[in-house]
Give the backbone structure.
Amino acid sequence: QVQLVESGGGLVQAGGSLRLSCAASGRTFSGYAMGWFRQAPGKEREFVAAVSWSGRSLNYADSIKGRFTISKNNAKNTVYLQMNSLKPEDTAVYYCAAKRTYSLGSYYLGENEYSYWGQGTQVTVSS
């Protein structure tokens, strides 16, 4: 079992930045690909970014490409989402997720592929 706890959400003005963190505990962080998803009010949860077990393979949703950066520190059992140039449409609850994998370089885009989820952290961007 892996427990995930997100932090770093909050209220920020449009154009500002936030850095989300997701700390994992329970089992070694190595061997897990990670993802960030978000759910805005009245909408379905959507993919934001993913990183492979090695941390070297990345993928981003088109809506945030060039503004958000996902990174992973296996030594600290933590995955990050640096969010810059935030827009009101980025307002959502952000969730991190973990998938046990034997592939160093694979990332995963579908939420159904992930077995472990955090409780979410609210990000609100004011105009």
About this structure: The two ends are 40 Å apart (CA to CA). The chain has a mean pLDDT of 94. The chain is about 0% helix and 50% strand. The CA atoms of residues 11 and 50 lie 24 Å apart.
